[in-house]
UniProtKB/TrEMBL annotation:
Alphabetical list of InterPro entries matching this protein: DNase_TatD-rel_CS (IPR018228), Metal_Hydrolase (IPR032466), TatD-like (IPR001130), TatD/YcfH-like (IPR015991)
Biased composition (Basic and acidic residues): 16-29
Gene3D superfamilies: Metal-dependent hydrolases
CC annotations in GO: cytosol
Keyword DNA repair carried by entry: no
SUPFAM superfamilies: Metallo-dependent hydrolases
Source organism of the structure: Microbacterium oleivorans
Keywords on record: Hydrolase, Metal-binding
Protein name: TatD family deoxyribonuclease
Pfam families: TatD_DNase
Residue numbers binding a divalent metal cation 1: 42, 44, 135, 246
Gene Ontology molecular function, alphabetical: DNA nuclease activity; hydrolase activity, acting on ester bonds; metal ion binding
Region of interest (Disordered), residue spans: 1-29
UniProt KW tRNA-binding keyword: no
Length: 300
């Protein structure tokens, strides 16, 4: 991932470029539009991808054309969080989540800048179109044991920010289920807590739903090896289900491995409806209602 750093006084020019590698970088064709609009509640539109990079305006227009009415743009460090807040302030179809990603927290700590970074997130969280702290949490897959204390420190600080500002929190949880849940119990979860790209099983889904958390399903629920996610979906109350892309990552089948973007949300939504055995329009209406309950209205 290559990065052009943002100017704090003008974040609009910030961009990251995803590594192209040997994968298929052609954009998938647009799916059939949904009749009832939904929202992508977690995406990273500051990351350019594909054989023909698409800017924010084009991505939002493509999404609107297939029934995706808005997105929650998530940050993961100071620069991407500033860009996310700018995007939300500049576009009525965007709300923002801001945070220091758990895999970034150890580097900030080592550099002696974690407190500074958290203070920036706290400042951004006060903006009216920043509606979530995220993505924050714990990741024991990419961070070794030496980095865990910094992750925990950062996670707890982000929980405090979300509660003080009265906004939602989006959790990144990778190979850290027990530690994430223990932290939420010990510190106290924000009123609106979302497990972004839920990665647990049915037992964890029941546990989270019992505590009023929302579970957000991404394109990996369509992957052949993701039966645990389909089992979790099956036991999650419909009023606790959200949908996301985590774009440009986790592109749903049949486009797995190719670039992802909010306009592909309908692929995942149709899969969810088929798995749940419910009417597509009814599911879309429920997903939209759930999203607005968590993040509030996109427009006044």
């Amino acid at each position: 991932m290559t990065t052009d750093r943002t100017d704090p006084t003008d974040p609009s020019g910030y961009v990251r470029q995803r590594e192209q590698s040997a994968r298929d970088v052609r954009w998938p064709d647009a799916p059939e539009p949904l009749r009832v609009a939904v929202y992508d509640n977690h995406t990273h539109l500051e990351i350019e991808d594909g054989d023909e990079p698409r800017g924010l305006d084009e991505q939002l227009a493509l999404a609107a054309g297939v029934g995706v009415a808005g997105v929650v743009q998530a940050g993961g460090d100071i620069d991407s969080s500033r860009w996310s807040a700018w995007a939300a302030a500049s576009h009525p179809a965007v709300l923002a989540a801001v945070a220091i990603h758990p895999n970034e927290a150890p580097a900030y700590k080592t550099a002696g800048r974690l407190d500074e970074a958290i203070a920036v997130i706290d400042e951004l969280a006060a903006q009216p179109r920043v509606r979530a702290v995220g993505e924050t949490g714990l990741d024991f897959f990419r961070t070794d044991a030496d980095g865990i204390p910094a992750q925990v420190e950062s996670f707890e600080a982000h929980i405090d920010i979300a509660k003080r500002h009265g906004i939602a929190m989006q959790i990144h949880d990778r190979d850290a289920h027990d530690a994430v849940l223990e932290t939420l119990e010990r510190v106290g979860a924000p009123e609106r807590t979302v497990f972004h790209c839920f990665s647990g099983d049915a037992d964890m889904a029941r546990y989270c739903a019992d505590r009023g958390y929302w579970l957000s399903f991404a394109g990996n629920v369509t992957f052949k090896n993701a039966q645990n996610l389909r089992d979790a979906l099956a036991v999650t109350p419909r009023e606790r289900i959200l949908v996301e892309t985590d774009a440009p990552f986790l592109t749903p089948v049949p486009h797995r491995g190719r670039p992802n973007a909010p306009y592909l949300v309908p692929v995942t939504v149709r899969f969810l409806a088929a798995e749940l055995g419910i009417d597509l329009d009814d599911l879309c209406a429920q997903l939209a209602q759930n999203t607005l309950e968590v993040y509030g209205a996109f427009t006044d």
